[in-house]
Design goal:
Elements (H helix, E strand, L loop, with lengths): L1 E3 L15 E2 L15 E3 L2 E3 L1 H4 L8 E2 H14 L10 E3 L4 H5 L7 H4 L21 E11 L5 E12 L3 H4 L3 E6 L4 E13 L7 E11 L2 E10 L13 E4 L2 E4 L2 E8 L7 E10 L8 E5 L8 E4 L7 H21 L12 E5 L11 H12 L4 H7 L4 H4 L7 H25 L4 H7 L1 H11 L4 H64 L4 H65 L1
Helix pairs in contact: 2-7, 10-12, 11-12
């Protein structure tokens, strides 16, 4: 099957703009459009009801009104308390206000919010804590590009102090990821001898949108270059066609004239698609398909900050208002994870996804919510997350029930919905129907998968524990062996010492022998020294005699010379 892409503007940053807005209020806190209905301090009017139309952004008033209404109506099987706590759509913004750098610092900005709930956030009936997150978007130039809303669901919020599993599950209906290719992915048109090519340098996913950065070239030897808008993207067995084109270079070329197209192709997928592998078929035909593969979704910087801030906030809240202040709340114990949820197929419904995910969590038992903190991403993907079709249906239901509430309130002159529901059982049933739908089979299947995974994980932990115990036993055995060896060596040394002590001092005969040996060694050393002295003396004596003989011979010669001289002188006279 082929799925055409809707008309879209070229996206510099492929993210939704809008999704949930704050309602403008008149001075004094009254709404400019008056009060249509209110429920426990959450107020909506006709202008808010208009936000439920197609292509409109949900606002914070509708979100708060229906979540609080759901907390009141949805819990089943005798549960009087909702399993999910909720502090309002602007809680996150207020927590981070006044330049707070951590959840502990931001706690003072919202320190009284949790006090409004009897028992606080750590009430035993709560299995989760729902926090809508408003993300400010920027384009490539760093300018504001609107807002995007997603839900942070803190599972088992008291687990950080009770040494139990705790998780911050990010439910984002417009997940984003980007992959750049250092070596561009290349393809060429068959039979054109490398003269018509296309390269893909980057691919980006923003929810249901796939944006491909490409560069196609042709030298004109076989005519004009094939148009990029004829390309198809194949994923999960169906083809996405009619992409939105954003060109930087638009040169189709012709016979003998080189052509080039450079820019982006934006394809719209089915929001239920969970594949990370895509196949791009450029142009009409002839080009070899290009296989594009994403890395798995990872936590974004904001999602990591959300997990860190909420962990710090809960730590401070436990320290000040916790049921057992003696226990230390480990803020690092919260496991942040991204659930593989269905993606929205427009740029407006992210606020409705936040509402729908919160309403569905209200139908779960608190024990089940706490158990979900241990679930893997693979098991979480099997949960019946809302699709775009579910969101569209929910908006229609909410639009209808708002009209019903407004008409009943006008008829009876009562704007308090809680009073209206207590007086009219049929109206209460209609409101409940607008907030829920029969999905017990799907939830039961997910619960079965979760229990299977946890049972397997328990078995794996038991095997790991057994293996660890075996290794510890081996180490202990080696230590015991070394200890016994040291004790044996110490025992032998002590026995030798006692044996020497019992033997007493050495005998006199042995002392004499030792003295004789020492004297002998002394004499041998002294005799060696004297012999060396005599040798030096003899050598010195010989040298002395030679010197004397030489001196005497010299004196004899001189005497003989003197005598002969005198004889000669006498004869002449």
């Amino acid at each position: 099957p082929q799925v055409p892409s809707p008309p879209l503007r070229p996206l510099a940053l492929a993210c939704p703009v809008g999704g949930l807005e704050r309602r403008a209020r008149a001075p004094g806190g009254r709404d400019a459009a008056g009060i249509g209905a209110q429920f426990r301090r959450a107020i909506i009017n006709l202008a808010d009801a208009g936000r439920l139309g197609e292509g409109e952004d949900l606002n914070d008033a509708i979100l708060d009104f229906f979540i609080r209404l759901g907390q009141y109506l949805i819990p089943e099987d005798g549960d009087k308390e909702p399993p999910v706590s909720y502090l309002g759509s602007i809680f996150w913004k207020q927590l981070r206000s006044a330049f707070a750098n951590s959840g502990e610092e931001g706690w003072k900005n919202v320190q009284n919010w949790a006090k409004r709930k009897a028992g606080g956030l750590f009430k035993p009936s709560y299995g989760a804590f729902a926090v809508p997150i408003n993300e400010d978007l920027k384009d490539d130039d760093g300018k504001d590009a609107g807002n995007h809303w997603w839900l942070a669901l803190v599972l088992n919020p008291g687990g950080g102090a009770l040494k139990e599993p705790m998780a911050v599950m990010c439910l984002d209906s417009m997940q984003r990821r980007t992959k750049k290719f250092e070596e561009p992915l290349k393809s060429e048109c068959a039979g054109h001898m490398h003269r018509y090519t296309v390269e893909v340098s980057e691919v980006e996913q923003a929810g249901y949108l796939i944006i491909i950065t490409f560069d196609a070239r042709g030298d004109g030897s076989f005519g004009a270059l094939q148009r990029p808008e004829r390309s198809r993207l194949v994923v999960d067995g169906y083809a996405c066609v009619d992409p939105t084109l954003g060109l930087k270079i638009n040169m189709p070329g012709d016979d003998g004239i080189a052509g080039r197209f450079q820019g982006t192709l934006t394809f719209a997928m089915d929001g239920r698609c969970r594949s990370s592998v895509f196949e791009l078929n450029y142009g009409e035909e002839g080009f070899k398909p290009i296989r594009i593969e994403f890395d798995p979704f990872q936590l974004t910087k904001l999602q990591k900050d959300v997990s860190r801030f909420l962990g710090g906030y809960l730590s401070k809240e436990w320290e000040i208002n916790g049921p057992n202040k003696g226990l230390r709340f480990e803020k690092q114990s919260a496991r942040a994870l991204v659930a593989d949820v269905h993606q929205q197929e427009n740029l407006n419904d992210c606020g409705v996804y936040v509402l729908e995910n919160t309403l569905r969590s209200l139908r779960l038992k608190k024990t089940f919510l706490k158990t979900m903190a241990e679930a893997s991403s693979q098991v979480l993907s099997s949960y019946p997350w809302p699709s775009q079709k579910d969101i569209t249906t929910r908006k229609l239901k909410l639009k209808g029930i708002v009209a019903r509430l407004f008409s009943t309130a006008a008829e009876k002159g009562i704007t308090d919905v809680e009073k209206l529901l207590k007086e009219d059982a049929k109206l209460k049933e209609e409101v409940l129907h607008s907030l829920t739908e029969a999905r017990e089979d799907e939830v039961d299947k997910f619960a079965e998968n979760l229990q299977t995974e946890l049972a397997k994980r328990t078995q794996d932990k038991e095997k790991e524990a057994a293996e660890l115990k075996r290794r510890e036993e081996i180490v202990q055995a080696r230590r015991e062996e070394e200890r016994l060896k040291r004790e044996e060596e110490a025992r032998k040394a002590e026995e030798e010492r006692l044996e020497r002590k019992r033997a007493g001092p050495p005998r006199k005969e042995e002392d004499k022998n030792k003295k004789k040996e020492q004297a002998k060694r002394s004499r041998s050393s002294s005799s060696g020294d004297s012999s060396r002295s005599r040798s030096r003396g003899k050598a010195k004596g010989k040298n002395g005699k030679r010197d004397k003989r030489a001196a005497s011979s010299a004196s004899d010669d001189s005497r003989r010379t003197a005598k002969s001289g005198r004889k000669k002188s006498g004869g002449s006279g």
